[in-house]
User: Fold these one by one.
Assistant:
Number 1:
Amino acid sequence: MSRARAEIVVELPLIRHNVRVLREHTGVEMMTVVKADGYGHGMVPAARAARDAGAAWLGVATIDEALGLREAGDTGRVLSWLGVPGEDYAAAISADVDVTAYSVAELREVAAAVGAAGRPARLQLKVDTGLSRGGAPLDAWEDLVAEAAAGQARGDWTVTGIWSHFACSDEPEHPANDAQEAAFRHALEVGERAGLRPEVRHLANSAAAILRPSSRFDLVRCGIASYGLDPAPGHTPDLGLLPAMSAVAELAMVKRIPAGAGVSYGHTWHAPHATTVGVVPVGYGDGVPRHASNHAEVLVGGRRRPVRGRVCMDQLVVDLDDDDVAAGARATLFGTGRLGEPTAQDWAEAAGTISYEIVTRIGGRFVRRYVDEGQE
Ligand SMILES: *Cc1c(COP(=O)(O)O)cnc(C)c1O
């Protein structure tokens, strides 16, 4: 096998560390969210690390993701939450995966699948408390709860959870947070009045889990913070979370360019004086955001080097100044920050996005490698 020219290095001990820190900080049961291939870290290794660190639950968007966890041998509680019409609920029920219903139409699909699965479903109900995305709107909630209670009485399922999701938890002072939490408490009362006694009531994602104790209920659903990234930059206290992913490549070429030389497509940067540039052999085809052109930095030879000109499909150019750096030198796009390298948060700011998008989209021709010092 050829040597990897570009690697995504995932440090599993850091995921375990982060999950433990979050469990201690929140004091409730933990659902580690491993959707979208574990936010780019690899769903199965991330899930194993989370379980090792005591995550009682794993959260995924799709039933396929949940079944992937089962195929990899995971036997713990798993919740999937984003069905589409015609979803294979029978496969999820057979695999002991908790499924989520947003509507009476979805309840009917789950009920039809129960027969095929030959066992009752574990069903969670999602209420829309103000995100206006998935979940039952408040004016449909009583009907959904009534149908769900009837299905439970028939033996079609057990309602194992009632939950919702915040819109603005990364802005702790935003008034939507109070409004959503109040709406959630009301929705829980409606469920109780209908006789539902779910195992878990949950509302908080990473930002709320850390910043809003009143929203923790029985369980928190932590995605981004499990990977060591800050869910609410500027608001989060320092808990010692450590970014688990690094993206590194080797310089393909190093050369001198004269004063005035235009760099990369469109010549959006010109060298003010003669300088040395390095070619980093990754680009937007590998998930490096083109929006970070002329803004991001890369660590080479112990120093942060500015990206000059546009990020291309397969490569980008960094300014090495007059330093003596050779082709083949290690270029760290982002990592833990421990060695002075930028973080995914830095890249997010350079590209006008959030760290979630940086780590989830990085991929392409990067080869993922896991570092695991064994159980600590
Ligand atoms: C992705 C997701 C989460 C995790 O959010 P983070 O901000 O990454 O902690 C939690 N709940 C739901 C419903 C999600 O879609």
Number 2:
Amino acid sequence: MKLATFLTSGLAAFTAAQTPAPYTDPKSGITFSILQHSSGYFFGLALPTNATGSTDFIATIGGKGTGWSGVSLGGAMLGKLLIVAWPNGQSVLGSFRKTATHASPAIATGPFTQSPIANGTYVNSTHWTYTFLCSKCIQPDKTTFLPTDTSPSLGYALNAAAPPQKTNPASSVAKHTSQGQVVFDLSKARSGRFEEWAGYAGVPVAKVGRGFEG
Ligand code: HEM
Ligand SMILES: *[C@@H]1O[C@H](CO)[C@@H](O)[C@H](O)[C@H]1NC(C)=O
Ligand SMILES: *[C@@H]1O[C@H](CO)[C@@H](O)[C@H](O)[C@H]1NC(C)=O
Ligand SMILES: *[C@@H]1O[C@H](CO)[C@@H](O)[C@H](O)[C@H]1NC(C)=O
């Protein structure tokens, strides 16, 4: 790895998927424990300090270009609550997904919602970024990590190809070109400012997801 790589600030591109590390989004000011991938993909989590009974987190997900980025809140692809997002011009679309088979996951319905955080959701010349309060996203049914888990494995998946119906949040996606599972040390994602940051969120998007003007 060249020295210059270490000197790059912000969402620097390293090789493959790294250990999640602290990152503060410059536009929202929210600090996440973020997983970065050499493709430009990233997924970050912010959680409250008191884990007991908490079902919510703030997520940031994005990438470079026009492809999709996804996360499995339970680590594996099958039978877990998935989140898929991609950019559409200056908008970003996000949705919940679930599947029992290794095929494009269908929209998932349940108590969970995504409420976009306006200044953490944007498309610039290099990346797209979608930041949202994920309410009731930590479920007790083994489809996600648990509130009191300390170091769960979460799954990441991405493809640089845009979905075939990129204006439709329920669009199918092509199989990932890169995927895997990464351990998140949740203690590094916890902050006493969580409630303040959660207050930045707007209204929940429709259950099927929708475009959000960043
Ligand atoms: C047409 C769409 C998709 C197909 C055909 C597909 C297929 C597969 C297959 C066959 C594997 C096993 C590893 C491999 O052989 O490559 C896998 C793993 C995985 N997939 Fe998918 N996938 C699709 C979409 C997605 C999406 C949208 C997500 C997340 C939002 C996702 C998340 C994962 C994760 C995290 C793994 C690794 C963990 C595990 O082994 O379960 N996949 N996928
Ligand atoms: C675009 O946004 C990403 C995510 O905040 C940031 O890492 C990157 O430096 C930004 N690019 C430019 C050209 O400002
Ligand atoms: C954490 O939250 C639980 C459930 O709301 C509550 O019973 C407990 O007192 C809280 N702990 C602290 C240290 O605030
Ligand atoms: C992002 O927006 C919230 C209001 O929703 C504001 O309080 C916060 O200061 C903004 N972040 C930055 C870095 O300006």
Number 3:
Amino acid sequence: MTLQSRLRDVENRLEQACLRSGRQREDIKVIAVTKYVPADTAQAVVREGITHIGENRWPAAKAKWDVLKGQAVFHYIGSLQTNKVKDVIGKFDFIHSLDRLSLAEAIHIRAQALDIHVPCFLQVNVSGEQSKHGLAPEDVKTFITDLQRYERIHPVGLMTMAPYESEPEATRPIFRSLRQLKDDLNGMSILKEPLTELSMGMSNDFEVAVEEGATWVRLGTVLVGKEEIEEG
Ligand SMILES: *Cc1c(COP(=O)(O)O)cnc(C)c1O
């Protein structure tokens, strides 16, 4: 399949999911996850009008950032080690993987040095799988409260990864829980500004995530394909 036909196919599927759930297509933004593909593919995606790029490791992201900075908005979607914060903050516009206070502190300090604010999603491990990063759902309220001491961090919403399911419908309770958690947190008036964003849905399950309220879907394989690439 060509890139254009993949984009068309994803677009149709997004529109159908919106129709099924009474949502507006413009309320859902697509992040092209380019971690599996080289920089020229990422450039082609941006030329086709998808200007949000997601990467999960700085060494692999660097080539894309070098050619696309200023043309694309960069989303850091991988687990972030504290000692990698200096590489990432200032280059990536959104962090989707904030899950601990030590990381929040490191981001805050770096953001202060650069005199910027950093929009962050709090990653939540809704499924409870051992292999997944993220806060336990019951810890998010305390975490958000503690986060307020880092004024350079701007919490915009919640992010989760559902377990891979051969039947995507099986992911629905995960996405529904994340939306419910967001609504609960917003009802507690612990935040200066409400959380508005839900980063959820990948190639295998994005339609279900959209039906359950995703505002950002992170699409790799289904959108840009998957290739073996050398990491620089
Ligand atoms: C790789 C990755 C994606 C995209 O995965 P696909 O299944 O290829 O769409 C989305 N989110 C995160 C956090 C990822 O690491």
Number 4:
Amino acid sequence: MTDQSNLFMDLAMPGVRGLRPYQPGKPMAELEREYGVSDIIKLASNENPLGPSPKALLAAQVRLAAVNRYPDGNGYSLKEALAGRHNVDSVCITLGSGSNEVLDLVARVFLGPGLEAVCSAHAFAIYALVTQAVGARAAVAPANSPDHDMPYGHDLQAMLTLINERTRVVFVANPNNPTGTWLGESALEAFLEKVPERVVVVLDEAYFEYARDVDCPDATRWMARFPNLIVTRTFSKAYGLAGFRIGYGLSHPDVADLLNRVRAPFNTSEVAQAAAVAALQDENHINETVALNRTEIRRLCKGFARLRLSYLPSAGNFVAVSVGPRVEEVNEALLRRGIIVRPIAAYGLPGFLRVTVGLPRENDRLLDAFGDLSMDGLTDRG
Ligand SMILES: *Cc1c(COP(=O)(O)O)cnc(C)c1O
């Protein structure tokens, strides 16, 4: 339905009117319906290809019989587990339906008409979305240049420059999605020292678990030093529980108190909470996940290099690879082969596809497809 024919557009809040819906990765069932292909592989939403921890699944199953009851909205057991993990008090924790909801809560608490949030170009799309939804403005800082050693990554200096008296929130993704780029400890620490105390800094660490081999700090270490810092984490990515919708924020207790005032009373299910507690304790599964990703991301990148496709450095479980101006054609050809990846033109990266690191055989299929397409002269090697 176009805006003109939408009877209710005039009634919607101005911030909502300007929103464009978030475009998720194509679901497998949709591709099957639309293209009639089977044996589909989805490398489009940075999910864990190994699946959830079996222990998390078991814990969830045990809780299923009690779904006639409302969950413990306060998430006592999960908060206790997280408090122990991060060495903070449980009053510092806000549980969300994915960390996405925590980002939304931050916007609802701290932003509104006349106010601004700062984020980087090529950053996770949700920051601008939650900002605009509450009528605030997203000030987008230019990112690093393509020839920087962290191409298209956050330029913290440029972000600082955009902070003014209307700024209430700064969103930083580390590592960032969809670029995969990351920020080192000293740069980030210097940044936190420079941001005024009345401006909340959200450090989104959705891919933290994957970033073991690089200088990508655990921002929770700065919690006590910077009361304006909110660190978000999720069970959707390395922990393999995307479908359960559970994530959290760590912050000063006063900030957590505000976030918890606006959240819906039963925003996370007890099934998801139980799965999260078990997932947190299953270190084997996380280690296997990270080890597989380490091997396979290297193999993917080598494969891209062999095909003379350039790609961005990534500390996550995905790679942004440049296939040139015929990106739509390449994407379409991949879909016809039953391979779902993510075009990221909407993130200011035309010509790039973001591919999630899959299982070895899935990555083989992707590389084979890229190889065939290159031979067909589909991709631009210029
Ligand atoms: C996936 C992702 C999230 C949030 O995912 P949830 O499923 O809502 O926890 C947050 N930030 C980034 C950068 C992501 O890629």
